[in-house]
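Chain X:
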Amino acid sequence: MPPATGEEFDYIVTGAGSAGCAVAARLSESGRHRVLLLEAGPPDRNPWIHIPMGFSRLFANPAVNWMYESEPEAQLGNRTLYQPRGKVLGGTSSINGMVYMRGNAGDYDEWRQRGCTGWDYDSVLPFFKKAENQQRGPSEFHGAGGPLTVSDQPRRHELADAVVAGAIESGLPPNDDFNGAQQEGAGYFQSTTGKSKRWSTATAYLKPARTRANLTVRSNALATKIQIENNQATGVTYVSNGVSRTARALGEVIVCGGVFNSPQLLQLSGIGPARLLSQHGIDIVRDSSSVGAHLQDHFYVRLAYRCTKPITMNELANSLPRKIVAMARYVFFKTGPLAANGVTCGGFGRSDPRLERPDLQFNFSPFSYASRGPEGAIAHQFPGFSLSAVHLRPDARGTVMLKSPDPLAAPAIRFNFLQTQYDLQALTTGVRMARGFTKQPSLAPYVAEEIVPGPTINTDAGKMRCPTCIPSAPAGWDRNPPIRWSIRGCACTASDGCGWSMPRSCRPCRRATPTRQRS
């Protein structure tokens, strides 16, 4: 059956995630433009989305999560790697850990040096400030009154204090603002929360815009193809309630599907490597070998520890009475452990002192998990906490390619991790540094033993290929600045960062601050 047609809009935005919500809200703001926003997932009504600590219940929930798996990684014993990705209004900003991190100023300046005029840090800082509603108020580096609420941790945690102190005792400088004058150091993270609730882009941008007559939001509507006529993008075909429909775009089609779904949609539409498209019987609109290439990720290693004191989230996870009390405190007072985002503190350091800026991030969480189940991470049966060492600027480059012409089929995701000496060395150093934190006077009294990966796995004998290595935040597509890719003029605007014409440098760690900085 051919798709139903007839609707016309000035702009069509595919994907109501971190970028798409902001783009649709801004385009519809003047009231002059008719905007259609398509989202494959449901509305963000699941209550766990809005409870900060509820992100653990979304980690493996297929109702709001694409739950992708990578292809086998040769350097990791051919293991596949789990890739949670938001499938709901707000996208991954509705299911992630809410850490607010812009990235290092030097990374933006490097973009400028590589030819991206207007993307140096001095140029983008005003947009970060415009987007921000900073709890601490306006300053040289922060803004107030913007749509995106940024907050301090609602309470100090005894164990988090010890982790920060241990990192400082190891040599990292204290830092109370990782988005301020410098990134390096140890301290508490801020989060994209407000009034003890998650502040996703659906909350920040889309919710205030929903009453506009010129903005149409369609959830449970999967974009399956960009319609292209005479080398111009003229509309989008999407499936909603089992019916295929086509909406026409008089202005532009803006692809905001994220790091995996943006290249997938372009390839389904005939824009990508010609050989790949031919293999799947897709008519070639434009042979572009870079679509789906240059995938970059922040690879991390998780370390888990048994804690000497019952002060972790594991005790809550394993006790029904404690869960009831915690939920009551949150529902009636918006306080207690559920009001915090869980990834409370950490730091940034360098794997080599000769580096100009940090290439390692450290994250602390007051829980440890034994496995992943249908309801999320399953905690150990004893008090525990986790530290992770994240490599922010890896050499590894991967791909996102179609495995099937079926739009519902997951793409083939390949990272090609740990194939260079630098990537191995940086992660090895990061693990060594994280372990060093636990041996300092402030933190050592809380450490009973290292349980994952365990003391028998040392940092000089293949530690980086242990089962705790996980990719953190893909950076090759939605972590690049938005750029316009034109087929003789209008065509597709890749506002979520389809970065095939961008420099191949990885901009590390910009969590919870995607392309919406252009708001």
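Chain Y:
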Amino acid sequence: MKRDAMAELSTEPERGQGWRLVALALITVLVIGIAVYYVDHRDIPFDRDAWIQGDPDAADPVVETHRAAMLKDLLSHHPLEGMNRQGVIALLGAPAHRTDTAPNELWYPVSIRWDGIDPSDIVNLVVELDAHDVVRNHRVVEYHRH
């Protein structure tokens, strides 16, 4: 009889441990998910050298660039409107070589996410110049494949 009571006592913690393990696993997944989201969506100060080196068109598709994280700071603290073409190129480097854009537009790839061999998300900064090569406007162009 004493042996049966011991058996009952020894199985009781195992039942409680199962739920604890499930709860611990869920909490771990949640914490990792939040950390990945935070790292992926953080803003960092604009750094000219890092921007120029971080061209996603030139990078290996596996390499993550910092341009997306710098975009908000760039547009908030470095007003592009009123700059001339040479000033923009001095700040952001050479624009992407595109054949499908107007000659008065400078395109800067910000981020590209790949799904196999195809891009699934593309973000570009487009700087529009007037007839005197002065920035009149900028816009962020996004493509998201569904």
